[in-house]
Amino acid sequence: MKLFMAALLTETNTFSPIPTGHGGFHEPSYRRTGASLEAPAWGNIPLIAWRRLAAEHGIEVIESLTANAQPSGTTIRAVYEGLRDLILADLKAAGPVEMVLLNLHGAMVAEGYDDCESDLVARARAIVGPDTIIGVELDLHCHLDETLRSQANIVITYKEYPHIDMTERAEEVFSLALRAARGEIRPVMAYHRLRMINMWHTPIEPMKSIIADMQAEEKSGQILSLSFAHGFPWGDVPHVGAVVLAVADGDAAHAQVTAERWAGRIWELRETTRKRFDTPDQAIDIALVGPGLTVVAETSDNAGGGAPSDCTAMLAAMLRRGVQNAAIGVFWDPVAVAFCQEAGEGARFPLRLGGKCGVMSGDPLDLMVRVHRVLDSHVQTALSGGVRQLGPAAWVEAEGIHIIIGSERNQVFNPDAFTGLGCMLADKRMVVVKSSQHFYAAFAPIAARVRYCAAEAGILRDFAAIPYERFTEPYWPKVANPFA
Length: 484
Known about the structure:
This protein is an alpha/beta fold. The protein contains 14 helices and 16 strands. Strand 13 (387-398) and strand 14 (401-406) form a beta hairpin.
């Protein structure tokens, strides 16, 4: 038996001013072949699991491209088509294969393509024919359309947000694909669209129980797989929004009924799970009361959602309020880092920070800073055993606030984004992380409380007010009952 595998990932914020081009995909995660033989990173984690499992089952592996770009704006057409065609050329060259496994994001939009993943899978199907099993692993912040459902045999999304379960979901994709290739099961998939735009955090109730109960139903054998695709709110495509996906063994009606039942349960919890965000001043008020460390997620400037990650709105509020003994990061500002490198550790000098990428960035701040530390290469621990590059980086202090600045645009995943530069957090009363939720797994254990904040600049967090043009269906929370 022969397995073909590849990875192509980015999450497209169609409102972002940052184009996704050639350079975005040719960051350190790019590998023409063999990424599964290297250390875990965002793009190759499922491929590492698939290679390991293939070896256990005596399956030959043909590995193609791994490319992962930081979430940004719409992908340049020629860039997407070039990467896609590399994968397809490798698939043709591989000859007959029994399984094709693809690690994709699910919210990649390119010029001329509303759903790059569906386009890639449909073209792969045309090459391999109807009998080859195609399995796809997706981020739960994905868009699901009918092309993907009809052309793939198995689609499974992450269950957890933060995404701590990439390896486990990869193992499920492999297991079901292998069983299907052997003729032991006949997977059929069904969707149910919830007509909801929201963000659901799975480590806390009621979503924690939803995920546990989904997994219990899978283990009971009633259904092969259940996925709750949260959707990516800032992708203006006709099929944006939350979807429940069920995979059944040969029984399409059972898959459909199961998807509808789970969608109904999630719909009933809509007000309980509705995301509400502090203003910067509200978050500061809570942190100043204490006691203990308050971790504040600056969700509106999350690079993982396509924001520039150089917005100064939260920092400006902290300075205006005279907050002391606090930290914030990671700002994406290669120019500021270069100035800190030139000035050197211990230097005190005026630094203009942030506000460089347009309206989403807000205004720059002019600060008098002291440089505590600079590194030529800074990394942080990411999810599922991976690492994320921050590039040349600096730790500076301005008016009692400690600021981390990086040269590679990335959201915060782990305290070592701060401590790796020497900025300790145990003595801080407030730490602001430019992230939406992926920080939670590592920061929650050290926090007395976690708050979610949205500034006026950056990604729009009022889901009812996102200025969609191509998505025209009624949805909650914009309307109370989109099914009426």
